[in-house]
């Protein structure tokens, strides 16, 4: 089973100055920065996925937050996605490079943003190894398997997705089969998804990409996959698109999954409330730690709201921020106690809640939970127990929730830990 990371232009400045929180004056984003597979000793994934909607703005569709600039799009299509992503070295050139249309970008539109012809051309120009047929997302998944007449809009999208797949595979064959076509599966129920998978196999697809799984719970995904396998048998390969349940992968080893993509390990580094840092444990699972929030005082919107409302002064805020950083770094060097370090961090952290205008009772409850999580992080010192290139290089900075260069490094660390966890899981279930 292969783990693919979906490219969202996540790279970091290798020369970032953590003490002064700045990059070099002449640093150029992308050109000077490093992707996860460059900054880590080994690639923390088995391949990359690039969404067309992140690269090319479709007419009538709002630009994605991670959309490439026009110059970046043109360069990717001129030199190929592998070279653009610097994924062409001897350690990476045989890894999967998958493209899809990024259907979530146009999910609210009545029709897909791109035609099969446009998508096929994009994959050819980008020199992808695999490409998914253009689909139209269906969010509903009724486990009671209602008939098509009860789901008119879902059935319309179902038909559009299949018709696009039919046109797409013909185009791929006509162009010389330079990449492996993957048939997109969409449906409003397990049975409809199984029916779609069966139709795709009859069209000639040997690799299916199962969509619509993002909002589903683990048990529902299992029912979908079991229903599909019962319909198409064990041979066609399966890819899970946007698999948000990556941490539960050990529960999916019996469904014949060839690959899946997920951004979860990196995203959780800075979007999860408490599970920001991954670390393998002796039992073969993963432990999760809360990163220590010390945001930049004069750049954090919540803190600035408090200053504007006169709740506290910017000068006092900066002083507390710098003390929290100083005490934490000294703790990392063996000076000070867990309790004293937590006190310094929480003395600053409480201003985040003041800036939001929370009532005292809510503030006290939130602060107590946060303090407990930070104490656990400091007591266990997980960054000291990790031998990845990032933790060895930047030390305690990786556990500080502060600015992109720290947060994304922590996310890249998570990718590496998760990738190894997946390998170990597959070995145990072999």
Polypeptide structure, described:
This protein is an alpha/beta fold. The protein folds into two domains: 46-262, TIM Barrel (Alpha-Beta Barrel); 286-416, no CATH class. It has 15 helices and 14 strands. The chain has helices spanning 36-39, 52-55, 70-79, 81-84, 116-126, 152-174, 190-203, 218-232, 264-271, 301-308, 314-332, 338-356, 360-380, 389-394, 403-428, and strands spanning 2-6, 11-12, 34-35, 47-51, 96-100, 130-132, 180-185, 207-210, 237-240, 257-261, 277-280, 286-289, 292-293, 400-401. The strands form four sheets. Strands 1-4-5-6-7-8-9-10 form an eight-stranded parallel beta barrel. The protein has a two-stranded antiparallel sheet with strand order 2-3. A two-stranded antiparallel ribbon has the order 11-12. It is globular and about 65 Å long.
What topology does this entry show?
Blueprint lengths: L1 E5 L4 E2 L21 E2 H4 L7 E5 H4 L14 H10 L1 H4 L11 E5 L15 H11 L3 E3 L19 H23 L5 E6 L4 H14 L3 E4 L7 H15 L4 E4 L16 E5 L2 H8 L5 E4 L5 E4 L2 E2 L7 H8 L5 H19 L5 H19 L3 H21 L8 H6 L5 E2 L1 H26 L2
Parallel strand pairs: 1-4, 1-10, 4-5, 5-6, 6-7, 7-8, 8-9, 9-10, 13-14
Antiparallel strand pairs: 2-3, 11-12
């Amino acid at each position: 089973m292969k783990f693919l990371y979906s490219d969202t232009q996540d790279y970091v400045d290798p020369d970032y100055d953590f003490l002064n929180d700045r990059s070099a004056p002449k640093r150029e984003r992308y050109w000077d920065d490093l992707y996860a597979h460059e900054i880590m000793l080994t690639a923390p994934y088995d391949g990359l996925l690039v969404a067309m909607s992140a690269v090319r703005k479709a007419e009538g569709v709002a630009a994605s937050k991670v959309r490439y600039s026009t110059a970046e799009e043109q360069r990717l299509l001129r030199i190929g996605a592998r070279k653009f992503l610097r994924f062409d070295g001897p350690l990476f050139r045989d890894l999967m490079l998958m493209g899809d249309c990024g259907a979530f970008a146009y999910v609210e539109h009545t029709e897909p943003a791109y035609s099969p012809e446009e998508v096929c051309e994009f994959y050819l120009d980008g020199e992808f190894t695999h490409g998914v047929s253009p689909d139209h997302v269906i969010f509903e998944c009724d486990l009671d398997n209602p008939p098509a007449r009860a789901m008119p809009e879902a059935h319309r999208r179902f038909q559009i997705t299949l018709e696009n797949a039919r046109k797409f595979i013909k185009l791929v064959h006509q162009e010389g089969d330079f990449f492996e076509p993957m048939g997109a599966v969409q449906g409003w129920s397990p049975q409809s998804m199984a029916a779609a998978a069966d139709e795709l196999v009859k069209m000639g697809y040997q690799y299916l990409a199962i969509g619509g799984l993002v909002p589903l719970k683990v048990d529902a995904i299992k029912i979908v996959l079991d229903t599909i396998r019962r319909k198409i048998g064990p041979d066609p390969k399966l890819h899970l698109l946007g698999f948000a349940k990556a941490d539960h992968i050990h529960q999916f080893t019996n469904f014949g999954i060839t690959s899946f993509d997920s951004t979860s390990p990196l995203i959780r580094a800075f979007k999860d409330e408490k599970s920001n840092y991954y670390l393998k444990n002796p039992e073969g699972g993963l432990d999760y730690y809360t990163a220590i929030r010390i945001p930049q005082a004069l750049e954090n919107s919540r803190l600035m709201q408090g200053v504007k409302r006169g709740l506290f002064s910017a000068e006092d805020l900066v002083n507390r921020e710098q003390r929290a950083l100083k005490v934490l770094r000294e703790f990392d060097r063996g000076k000070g106690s867990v309790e004293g370090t937590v006190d310094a961090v929480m003395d600053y952290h409480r201003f985040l809640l003041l800036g939001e205008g929370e009532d005292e009772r809510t503030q006290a409850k939130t602060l107590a939970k946060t303090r407990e999580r930070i104490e656990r992080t400091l007591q266990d010192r997980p960054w000291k127990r990790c031998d990845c290139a990032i933790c060895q290089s930047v030390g305690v900075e990786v556990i500080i929730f502060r600015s992109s260069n720290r947060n994304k490094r922590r996310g890249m660390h998570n990718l590496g830990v998760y990738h190894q966890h997946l390998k170990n899981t597959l070995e145990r279930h072999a």
